[in-house]
Amino acid sequence: MVTPTQTNPATQGNSARILAFGRELKARGFEVDVLYYVLDDWNPEIENRMRREWSQLHIVEGRPHAKQSHAAYWGLDDWCPAELVQKVRQLCKDHDYRAVIVNYVWLSACLIGIDRPLRILDTHDIFGDRAHLAISAGLEPSWYFTSIEEEARGLDRADVIIAIQHEERQLLLPRTEASVLTVGHPVHARFLSPRDDVTAEPFGYFASGNPWNVASIRALDAALTTTSPPLNWMMAGSICRQPIPFQSHPRILGVLDDPGDFYDLAACVINPMSAGTGLKIKTVEALAYGRPVLGTSEAFRGLTAFHEAQTAPTITDLAQIMRNYLSSPSLRRDVTSASMRTYIDYMQTTQRAYDDLARMIIQT
Question: pTM, whole model, 2 decimals?
Answer without folding.
Answer: 0.86
